[in-house]
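We were asked to recover a plausible sequence for a given structure. The inputs and outputs are reproduced exactly as logged, with field labels preserved.

PROBLEM: sequence recovery
POSITIONS: 521
GIVEN STRUCTURE:
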């Protein structure tokens, strides 16, 4: 999210109170435990996620001084398991030596062969990022390098490495392209709704290859592009390129993607230019990029969850759960599929301290039923994997963070389910509690149109204090959002309207005992 993006940033953030925030009331009840948050202060885009010597490094846009956007620098944290994070001092602070330079978004690569000539060891990281110089009204691409395992970075002395003398030109994402035998960069021309492709032998001198766009969502701005190649499931020899970018200007943060091929110069879209494919159907996922240098060419993706108007303290903003990406062949064409990172999902029993509950064959008709009355959901930080069988024409699903009155009646809850009459997945926050007023009216009910067999409804719900990510089906559709439960809003209900539902299987992991992170040296 960048300073020059006047329409979206200023209007959205002023409306939400982010720039004008004065309250400093601690809100530990809403701090996620298995999603990344900074220890304190503002965070936005993930930057330079990279795997190095058995450790996941993640840098992030961070304000070192305040709990609001500004003074953009690169924060730094590491993890062995993508759950427990060690937080380190700022890796790349803003500079004011010659002129104010903010370190905007970018990437990091492992330059093990010292193509840049800047490296002293085979664990040398080179960061390519956007330098924003607000006084000069200019953005250009800079290089910095680290010879101490990514703890600190030194700016390349002959920066910038790409300079179009433009006010809006940002967010380079770089990876090694085996076909070109060169480094390949994709970078955004925000107002033109385009991306440019550059290649380089040495990460310093870059040659323009081609451009793509406008296409998909237009008339706002494009930011934070990424470009990865994935195999189609069941067809290992069939590979496609996925171009993703974030879009601002539609009234809420949006990420879109394109499927196609790369001809060595530019991207060739498989779909018509006006076809829109959403990465996420919620109201907060933005600036997502893949990790670099993951072993065995596996893929991993993480994004920023843009905070709504509700204030949190002493931190502001968080990241999504890391996700594995894949492609599937559908009747509409090849489409993106997302699942929570297997590294996390395969170890849920360990993270939950074996606080796991399983339920099978629970039936209800035109009503609701508590799923679990004990401590496993009382921490409001859990993970659900469920399969439902419902009658045609019914609406069914779960009510989470539900609050009951003295008569044991539900008075507030967030509803997640499938409406088989309308053929819609949905998340309804219209009655989520007293803090619903900090959610835009038009975003309280969020829907995804999709024809689903009610005889097999699959849902994964990742609820973490205030963040909510729902993976529908086999991950073909994902919806990411926030809720801010009131005190004692910690009940979980199964419901069915206009029919019957059989909860065929349900597994809940209590993750509320996870200790989120520690401070490093």
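RECOVERED SEQUENCE:
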């Amino acid at each position: 999210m960048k300073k020059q993006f006047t329409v979206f940033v200023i209007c959205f953030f002023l409306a939400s109170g982010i720039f004008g925030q004065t309250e400093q009331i601690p809100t530990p009840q809403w701090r996620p435990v298995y999603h990344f948050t900074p220890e304190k202060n503002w965070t936005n885009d993930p930057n330079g996620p990279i795997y190095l010597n058995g450790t996941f490094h993640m840098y992030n846009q961070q304000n070192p001084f305040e709990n609001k956007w500004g003074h953009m620098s690169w924060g730094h944290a590491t993890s062995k398991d993508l759950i427990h994070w060690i937080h380190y001092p700022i890796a790349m602070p803003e500079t004011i030596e010659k002129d104010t330079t903010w370190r905007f978004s970018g990437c990091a690569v492992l330059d093990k062969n010292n193509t840049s000539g800047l490296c002293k060891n085979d664990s040398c990281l080179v960061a390519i990022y956007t330098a924003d110089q607000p006084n000069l009204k200019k953005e250009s691409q800079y290089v910095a390098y680290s010879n101490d395992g990514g703890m600190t970075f030194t700016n390349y002395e002959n920066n910038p490495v790409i300079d179009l003398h433009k006010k809006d030109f940002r967010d380079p994402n770089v990876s090694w392209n085996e076909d070109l035998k060169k480094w390949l960069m994709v970078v955004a021309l925000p107002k033109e709704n385009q991306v440019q492709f550059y290649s380089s032998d040495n990460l310093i001198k870059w040659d323009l290859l081609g451009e793509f766009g406008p296409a998909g969502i237009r008339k706002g701005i494009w930011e934070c592009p990424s470009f990865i190649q994935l195999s189609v499931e069941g067809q290992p020899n069939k590979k496609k390129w996925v171009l993703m970018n974030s879009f601002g200007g539609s009234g809420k943060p949006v990420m879109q993607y394109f499927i196609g091929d790369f001809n060595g110069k530019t991207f060739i879209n498989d779909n018509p230019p006006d076809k829109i494919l959403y990465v996420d159907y919620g109201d907060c996922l933005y600036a997502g990029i893949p990790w670099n240098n993951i072993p065995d060419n596996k893929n991993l993706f993480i994004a920023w969850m843009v905070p709504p108007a509700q204030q949190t303290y002493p931190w502001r903003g968080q990241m999504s759960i890391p996700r594995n990406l894949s492609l599937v062949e559908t009747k509409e064409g090849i489409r993106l599929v997302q699942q929570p990172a297997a590294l996390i999902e395969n170890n849920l029993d360990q993270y939950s301290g074996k606080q796991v509950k399983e339920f099978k064959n629970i039936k209800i008709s035109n009503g609701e039923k508590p799923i679990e009355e004990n401590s496993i959901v009382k921490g409001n930080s859990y993970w659900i994997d469920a399969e439902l069988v419902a009658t045609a024409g019914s609406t069914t699903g779960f009510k989470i963070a539900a609050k009951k009155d003295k008569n044991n009646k539900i008075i507030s809850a967030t509803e997640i389910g499938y409406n088989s009459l309308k053929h819609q997945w949905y998340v309804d926050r219209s009655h989520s509690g007293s803090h619903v007023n900090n959610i835009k009216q038009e975003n309280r009910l969020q829907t995804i149109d999709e024809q689903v067999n009610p005889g097999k409804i699959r849902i994964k719900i990742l609820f973490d204090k205030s963040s909510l990510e729902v993976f529908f089906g086999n991950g073909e559709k994902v919806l990411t959002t926030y809720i801010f439960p009131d005190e004692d809003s910690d009940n979980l209900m199964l419901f069915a309207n206009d029919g019957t539902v059989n909860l065929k299987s349900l597994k809940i992991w209590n993750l509320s005992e996870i200790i989120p992170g520690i401070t490093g040296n």
